[in-house]
Design goal:
The structure is a homodimer of 201-residue chains.
Chain A: H1 7-16, H2 24-36, H3 39-55, E1 57-58, E2 65-66, H4 73-76, E3 84-88, H5 94-100, E4 106-109, H6 127-137, E5 141-144, H7 150-162, E6 169-172, H8 188-196, E7 199-200
Parallel strand pairs in A: 3-4, 3-5, 5-6
Antiparallel strand pairs in A: 1-2, 6-7
Helix pairs in contact in A: 1-2, 5-8
């Protein structure tokens, strides 16, 4: 039900529907909520979007999100176990892993999974950079925490092969992850179990 | 899991969590989606929020949202049945009603329902304005489409009493609405039934 005298409302609905998981109905509901909100709160949402886009960028070393210049706070944290590296597909997978309290090493973000059917091949991911880090930074263990899907599994196998003979133990999160699920929604307990039950590749 | 080197991301998550129905986890998911988006799309969301807040205001006559000066496009639409008035609590209730195709008259937005327990009394709503319109605009029928809740029912009864003896037929949406539900989510078929089965008060 489009109203001709409400172009700015229609534009807002269309813009909100650009967000993942927000359909036409949800976008309408959110648009009306924004119209009802205090001016100040709506402005805060608007401004924080621009500010985040402007300030947040990947860490040049590990690929996690950061807003500081140079290596991110995780790479630079003194208490971290610099001998252990956790390889993830997406920066947001950092949160459930960190939240599990089972891992205190460094991270490496691949930027996706190998998916030949979708045209994502190893060159599109930060795999060369990973091998280079393994050679330079002298890790004791590399934990492959790619998504528990077919593509994630393929990516883990591909990387495990590349790292063979480089004197590093390569493990894969195992126990607790159910095939086809999304890492982002794994509860912290299950994530803890997955770390405990990781298997050597 | 808060990151000290990501203040703009934390701010964006907090801002998105101001939206109704968006919890901490959803806000995080949306914030990451915004970071991944094209610059242009994120800017569009940000700008459309400000533009909508700036441009959209209630129609001075009926209270529906509009962006034009003076009466809204619905009030001014020539094809509308000017003898029939539909009274709603909230501007967004316009959409399911209009979508049902069962009503082609004018609207009047109350701006809420009477809820004495929450301190909302008749003076807080556009009820005086409604009585004034009924006296001036000579409606044949006033359809009370307040929410199918206790407060909505109370509001309908209160208005029905006020309009007694003013020579206008007062009806209430009946058939099809289930008590305790929200008008906003009623499907158009049920809404059509509710219009057909409206009863005289």
């Amino acid at each position: 039900m489009e109203r001709k005298d409400l172009p700015a409302l229609e534009r807002l609905k269309a813009a909100l529907a650009l967000l993942p998981g927000i359909g036409a109905r949800s976008a309408e509901r959110l648009a009306f909520a924004i119209l009802k909100m205090d001016e100040e709160k709506a402005r805060e949402i608007s401004e924080s979007i621009l500010k985040a886009k402007e300030s947040v960028h990947p860490c040049p070393r590990c690929g996690l999100m950061t807003e500081k210049e140079g290596d991110c706070a995780i790479c630079e944290e003194e208490d971290r176990d610099k001998g252990s590296l956790c390889v993830i597909s997406d920066p947001k997978d950092f949160y459930p892993i960190e939240g599990s309290g089972s891992f205190h090493g460094l991270y490496h973000v691949l930027g996706g999974s190998i998916a030949l059917s979708k045209g994502v091949d190893p060159d599109d991911l930060k795999i060369d950079e990973l091998v280079e880090r393994v050679e330079k930074e002298g890790f004791r263990e590399v934990i492959l925490a790619t998504e528990p899907t077919l593509d994630g599994e393929t990516t883990a196998m591909y990387i495990a092969n590349l790292l063979k003979g480089k004197g590093v133990e390569v493990t894969r999160l195992g126990y607790g992850l159910s095939l086809g699920s999304s890492l982002e929604y794994v509860d912290t307990l299950t994530m803890g179990r997955a770390f405990e039950g990781r298997r050597k590749l």
